[in-house]
């Protein structure tokens, strides 16, 4: 019964972060400014701000803490995590993507990994098989979404390097 923005968030997450502590996203031609600390998604913006599909901001530390909470049962029950990790298709889990050929997360995650990306560049991975969590906070739309940022290759190379360096 309350707006999404009224919902409490863990430390490190915000609906409307301080723009002076936020990375610039796109130089938006129809808003007439470079956006900082505001929801980038045009539909969410039209609704007035954060929505269920866009608008949550977080630090790398907060994302890693959330991933660890998923793994250790603080954020979800083990049964709920198992349900999420049940494949729905060759590429999808419940609300997440799973590793597959050409996956944005690279080729070195276990088959019990879930990943999610965001339009502006974020990538988040939780490997329940190996107890690993990683996030990549990039800014693929600055200054414009209309250039090839190479984000797919960057995500794949970064994740493969992380996984190769992690102790077995």
Largest sheet: 3 strands, antiparallel
Report the span from N to C terminus: 46 Å
Q: Return residue spans where pLDDT drops below 50 for at least 5 consecutive residues.
A: none
Note the run of SSEs as H and E: EEEHEHHEEEH
Helix-and-strand structural type: alpha+beta
How does the SSE layout of this entry go?
Layout: E1 13-14, E2 24-28, E3 33-36, H1 42-46, E4 57-58, H2 60-72, H3 78-84, E5 113-117, E6 123-127, E7 132-136, H4 151-165
Antiparallel strand pairs: 1-4, 2-3, 5-6, 6-7
Please outline what is shown here:
The protein is an alpha+beta fold and 168 residues long. The protein is built from four helices and seven strands.
């Amino acid at each position: 019964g309350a707006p999404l923005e009224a919902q409490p968030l863990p430390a490190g997450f915000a609906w409307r972060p301080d723009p002076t502590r936020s990375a610039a996203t796109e130089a938006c031609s129809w808003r007439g400014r470079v956006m900082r600390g505001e929801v980038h998604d045009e539909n969410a913006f039209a609704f007035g701000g954060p929505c269920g599909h866009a608008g949550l901001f977080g630090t790398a530390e907060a994302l890693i803490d959330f991933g660890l909470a998923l793994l250790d049962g603080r954020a979800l029950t083990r049964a709920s995590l198992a349900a999420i990790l049940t494949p729905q298709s060759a590429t999808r889990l419940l609300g997440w993507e799973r590793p597959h050929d050409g996956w944005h997360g690279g080729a070195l995650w276990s088959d019990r990994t879930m990943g999610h990306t965001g339009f502006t560049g974020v990538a988040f991975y939780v490997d329940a098989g190996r107890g690993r969590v990683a996030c990549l906070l990039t800014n693929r739309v600055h200054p414009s979404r209309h250039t090839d940022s190479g984000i797919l290759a960057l995500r794949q190379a970064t994740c493969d390097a992380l996984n190769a360096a992690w102790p077995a």
